[in-house]
UniProtKB/TrEMBL annotation, chains A, B:
InterPro entries: HD/PDEase_dom, HD_domain, YfbR/HDDC2. This is 5'-deoxynucleotidase. Residues 44-162 form the HD/PDEase domain. The lineage of its organism: Bacteria, Bacillati, Actinomycetota, Actinomycetes, Streptosporangiales. One of its GO terms (molecular function) is metal ion binding. Gene3D superfamilies: Hypothetical protein af1432. It comes from Streptomonospora litoralis. One of its GO terms (cellular component) is cytoplasm. Keywords: Hydrolase, Metal-binding. SUPFAM superfamilies: HD-domain/PDEase-like (SSF109604). The keyword Hydrolase applies.
Length: 208, 208
């Protein structure tokens, strides 16, 4: 763990600020957690931090496709922190059932450690927002998840199948993810269906 | 420019969605724009996309240090898009006066091209938010700029002086940036002063 600089600023609660700085320094590690999918130009794998940034941007751009009344600021807040647990738990490839089994437990342990670096009130609210995202019980969480699932589909389509081809992902496996998109946004779900049909025509998806 | 997949989704305005997808695909390039500063572990240079993510997170964590009434959702929105112009204009090293001269013009041209990829209403509001950030005329813009200036100071301190040492940056040059932090947040300005004093004691800053 990187310790914040041992300096005292006047008029600031030192302990509280130090906790916040420790969290900010710790989360720098998200920039080194690599995902399976590539950048859109195919040059290298994407990392979790830049992925989270792109989702925060996309949530705003696609806001009109969220159900009426969805709080987009809250969606953005969720997306900014949704992958922080992967600093400890690593990126879980969504098409690998073996990994997915232990994912929840590993991510919970990570949340226990990392969010707790923050001052208690912030640790609690941040953890709650992450739990909300994971549970998909609110319109905000479902829309955030839809954006999270759509982004790698765009990247895969634009890299001639990308991880679908490399890992022999089947159409029925992708259809599961499309369902999650449709649950968060009818319009984006409809787009994802059309994109997957096109990907299949192009031979990017395995039979099954 | 990467063109979105030529697919039609039912019940969606195709032209509008295609513009939005074009913007999302184009902004993927921000992941390849490198900044001068390193990651906190010193392993490599930071890119603009992951930098923007970390600022969006930091703005939320440090929200209590913004002046009362500051709209943090708006600050986050600004930070998510503040560097997009660098896709065309490149990262400008803030301690290089030669680059800084032409920066404004280059960034304006980039904004003209990139934000205009969006549907007209979104192009207009996104451009306006970026202009607001640049002008620093609101509490939101000043706080966003403070976060943007503080982050590389943290990275520099934690990499034994980082870009300060590598480029012979002087204490008086850094003091200018500290002033911008103090204008956005009294508490973070106070912390930045203490951090710079400590950096000077450690010999991370050149005399001048």
């Amino acid at each position: 763990m990187t310790e914040p600089a041992p300096v005292f600023a006047s008029g600031v609660d030192h302990e509280r600020l130090t906790s916040q700085l420790r969290f900010i320094l710790e989360t720098d590690k998200l920039k080194r957690i690599l995902r399976r999918n590539m950048l859109v130009d195919g040059s290298r794998r994407e990392n979790d931090a830049e992925h989270s940034w792109h989702l925060a941007l996309a949530a705003r751009v696609f806001a009109e496709y969220a159900p009426a009344g969805t709080d987009i600021d809250r969606v953005v807040e969720m997306l900014v922190l949704h992958d922080i647990v992967e600093i400890d738990a690593g990126d879980t490839f969504i098409y690998d059932p073996g990994q997915a089994d232990s994912q929840s437990e590993r991510e919970r342990a990570a949340a226990d450690r990392i969010f707790a670096l923050l001052p208690e009130d912030q640790a609690r609210s941040t953890r709650a927002l992450w739990e909300e995202f994971e549970a998909r019980g609110t319109a905000e969480a479902r829309f955030a998840k839809a954006i999270d699932r759509l982004a790698p589909m765009l990247a895969n389509w634009h890299t001639e199948g990308g991880t679908w081809v490399r890992h022999g992902v089947t159409r029925s496996q992708v259809a599961e993810k499309v369902k999650i998109i449709a649950e968060g946004s009818e319009a984006l779900g409809s787009y994802a269906v059309a994109l997957i049909e096109d990907a299949e025509r192009r031979g990017y998806l395995a039979v099954g």
